[in-house]
């Protein structure tokens, strides 16, 4: 029983806006299954008293003072934008024709 | 075209169904800077002027948490009687939409900073309803979109959209209630009173501007109906775009009537997001999502966990303002108000404003009179909440002081207030600019009095005969001649002394 199905891979690809062909789905589903099973071996050694780790560094409460620092100007902010209009980033139509 | 929704009579709805509410309130904190970067957190401004690599989601940028925002979040949690997490993390909520240039929103998922609280809400007739709080979590606001090319600025039919990221990354606290049931016909009123009380509390905490018209306080209302006697919750809808207290009440009421009409016809409620239409007081269906929401939350790797020490939490507890309910009771006693007077004050949303005006040097009676009558009329005619009028309690207090000093008559005082409301500056500046000083020069007044007496010799004779009440006609004439800029009391004194 694979740990991730072909359908799940297709679903994830769509959520990530990745165009994946049928052949690629077969390929990636197999590869991801190997990766997931390899990582799953960690579960064999992790006892119930070991919480899942999200951060490798044992740090908490790293805060910044609430003091304004200059950011980018409008011109600089928009400098690399593919398109801009009226001081704003211009993006293509958000909803498709069918919506 | 969708058909106009059928509406069931409200009394029928509450006779057959029990409404169940869930309210989500988003509050923008008024910190100096954004949640994860040092850009200024200000409303308005030229587009894309308060942005940096972090809030624009540029490669290589890293977020750092604003400590003041954490402090505000904890204080909000404590004020809502919540437990404060000993340890919690931020999470990425992944979605593709240009209002977040990062393609995810930094939020909290299953580890909110505050949870399991309540807020006691007093209804108009004094009944207290306890609204339970599920959680209050930290996140960041999105940018603002402008849709171009479609009708009326809507996303449907738009050819392209324009994005301003000044608001992207502004600290946001989302406060979620547990389901509120058993309120029956009073559900819309409970919803309104909850948001109103929450706003009062947040204002007292001084953590947010809480301006619903500017979006610094936003409410989403989840509404469902369940047939009387049923035990299973009905399907709910979530209504957004509810931008005033009055709209909260109207939106809940409308959804109850709409859903009632669907259910009695044997129809099914579609779980969907709906938008409140202010003008018609109705809700319309939003875009149906083609797939169920799948945000693939995972712990934010670029931010370390937040673990507020118990000492810090207790220190912050010491900074909390008086709870709204206790504050009201104290104020009512201190100002010797009847229940009805207190209710008027609360309904006008004026408790905090009057208190602040008193703190700035006015007496409670004078402050209350201004806010509950003249300023409430002004707010109503502009269609805004009292607190949204562009006049501050300190400015009202200054006008009251000027009246007490005899520098302004009540009539002139109203003109000064109008000037402040019109954006002409501080009361003293308005007095100066509009030339509203009371004519206090006795020689000028004496001349006006003599003239008025000469013009009405019969009245003058009466006064000389000791009929002091007749002096009113002369005072009126003098006030008219000085265009209301004289102190009526002083004029009266002069009239009587000139006739004796």
Describe this structure in words.
The complex is a heterodimer of chains A (99) and B (500). Chain A is mainly α and 99 residues long. Chain A is built from 3 helices and 3 strands. Chain A has a two-stranded antiparallel sheet with strand order 2-3. In chain A, strand 2 and strand 3 form a beta hairpin. In chain A, helix 1 (6-15) crosses helix 2 (22-45). Chain B has 500 residues and is an alpha+beta fold. Chain B folds into 3 domains: 10-312, no CATH class; 324-434, no CATH class; 442-498, Arc Repressor Mutant, subunit A. Chain B has 16 helices and 15 strands. Chain B has helices spanning 10-16, 67-79, 187-205, 245-264, 310-317, 324-334, 339-347, 351-359, 364-382, 393-404, 410-421, 427-434, 442-455, 457-464, 471-481, 488-498, and strands at residues 17-28, 65-66, 83-84, 91-94, 104-107, 114-122, 128-140, 144-148, 160-164, 171-177, 217-227, 237-242, 273-277, 282-285, 298-299. In chain B, the strands form 3 sheets. In chain B, strands 3-6-7-10-1-11-12-13-14 form a 9-stranded mixed beta sheet. Chain B has a 3-stranded antiparallel beta sheet with strand order 5-4-15, with no helix packed on it. A two-stranded antiparallel ribbon of chain B has the order 8-9. Chain B is elongated. The chains are: A mainly alpha (99), B alpha+beta (500). At the A-B interface, helix 1, strand 1, helix 3 and strand 3 of A face strand 2, helix 2, strand 8 and strand 9 of B. Strand 1 of chain A pairs parallel with strand 2 of chain B, so a sheet runs across the interface.
Give a topology summary.
The complex is a heterodimer of chains A (99) and B (500).
Chain A: H1 6-15, H2 22-45, E1 63-64, H3 74-78, E2 84-85, E3 88-92
Helix pairs in contact in A: 1-2
Chain B: H1 10-16, E1 17-28, E2 65-66, H2 67-79, E3 83-84, E4 91-94, E5 104-107, E6 114-122, E7 128-140, E8 144-148, E9 160-164, E10 171-177, H3 187-205, E11 217-227, E12 237-242, H4 245-264, E13 273-277, E14 282-285, E15 298-299, H5 310-317, H6 324-334, H7 339-347, H8 351-359, H9 364-382, H10 393-404, H11 410-421, H12 427-434, H13 442-455, H14 457-464, H15 471-481, H16 488-498
Parallel strand pairs in B: 12-13
Antiparallel strand pairs in B: 1-10, 1-11, 3-6, 4-5, 4-15, 6-7, 7-10, 8-9, 11-12, 13-14
Helix pairs in contact in B: 3-4, 8-9, 8-10, 10-11, 11-12, 13-15, 13-16, 15-16
């Amino acid at each position: 029983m694979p740990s991730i199905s072909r359908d799940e891979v297709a679903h994830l690809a769509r959520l990530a806006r990745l165009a994946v062909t049928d052949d690629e789905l077969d390929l990636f589903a197999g590869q991801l299954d190997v990766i997931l099973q390899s990582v799953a071996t960690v579960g064999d050694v992790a006892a119930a008293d070991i919480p899942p780790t999200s951060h490798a560094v044992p740090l908490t409460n790293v805060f910044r003072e609430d003091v304004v620092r200059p950011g980018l100007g409008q011109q600089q902010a928009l400098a690399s934008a593919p398109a801009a209009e009226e001081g704003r980033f211009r993006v293509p139509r958000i909803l498709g024709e069918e919506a | 075209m969708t058909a106009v929704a059928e509406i069931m009579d409200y009394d029928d709805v509450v006779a057959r169904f029990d409404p169940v509410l869930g309210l989500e309130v988003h509050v923008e904190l008024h910190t100096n800077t954004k949640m994860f970067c040092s850009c200024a957190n200000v409303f308005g401004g030229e587009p894309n002027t308060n942005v940096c690599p972090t809030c624009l989601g540029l490669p290589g940028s890293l977020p750092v948490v604003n400590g003041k925002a954490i402090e505000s979040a904890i204080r909000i949690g404590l004020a809502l009687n919540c437990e404060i997490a000993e340890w919690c993390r931020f999470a990425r909520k992944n979605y593709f939409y240009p209002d977040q240039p990062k393609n995810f929103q930094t939020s909290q998922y299953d580890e909110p900073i505050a949870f399991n609280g309540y807020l006691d809400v007093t209804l108009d007739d004094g009944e207290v309803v306890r609204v339970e709080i599920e959680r209050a979590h930290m996140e960041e606001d999105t940018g603002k979109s402008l849709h171009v090319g479609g009708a009326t600025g809507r996303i449907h039919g738009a050819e392209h959209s324009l994005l301003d990221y000044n608001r992207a990354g502004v600290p946001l606290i989302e406060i979620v209630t547990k389901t509120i049931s058993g309120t029956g016909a009073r559900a819309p009123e409970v919803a309104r009173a909850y948001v109103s009380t929450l706003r009062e509390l947040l204002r007292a905490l001084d953590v947010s501007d809480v301006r619903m018209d500017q979006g610094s306080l936003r409410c989403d209302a989840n509404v469902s109906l369940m047939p009387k006697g049923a035990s299973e919750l009905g399907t709910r809808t979530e209504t957004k775009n509810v931008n005033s207290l009055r709209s909260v009440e109207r939106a809940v009421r409308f959804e109850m009537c709409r859903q009632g009409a669907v259910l009695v016809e044997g129809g099914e409620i579609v779980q969907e997001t709906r938008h409140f239409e202010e003008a018609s007081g109705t809700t319309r269906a939003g875009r149906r999502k083609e797939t169920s929401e799948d945000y693939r939350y995972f712990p934010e790797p670029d931010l370390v966990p937040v673990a507020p020490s118990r000492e810090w939490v207790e220190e912050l507890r010491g900074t909390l303002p008086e709870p709204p309910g206790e504050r009201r009771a104290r104020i009512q006693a201190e100002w010797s108000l009847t229940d009805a007077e207190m209710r008027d004050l609360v309904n006008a949303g004026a408790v905090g404003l009057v208190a602040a005006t008193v703190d700035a040097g006015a007496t409670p009676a004078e402050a209350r009179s201004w806010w509950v009558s003249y300023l409430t009329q002004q707010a109503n005619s502009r269609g805004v909440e009292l607190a949204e009028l562009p006049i501050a309690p300190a400015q009202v207090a200054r006008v009251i002081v000027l009246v007490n000093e005899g520098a302004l008559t009540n009539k002139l005082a109203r003109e000064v207030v109008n000037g402040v409301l019109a954006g002409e500056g501080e009361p003293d500046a308005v007095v100066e600019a509009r030339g509203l000083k009371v004519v206090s020069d006795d020689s000028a007044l004496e001349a006006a009095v003599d003239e008025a007496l000469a013009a009405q010799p019969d009245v003058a004779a009466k006064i000389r005969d000791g009929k002091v009440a007749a002096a009113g006609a002369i005072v009126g004439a003098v006030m008219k001649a000085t265009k209301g800029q004289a102190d009526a009391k002083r004029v009266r004194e002069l009239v009587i002394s000139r006739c004796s």
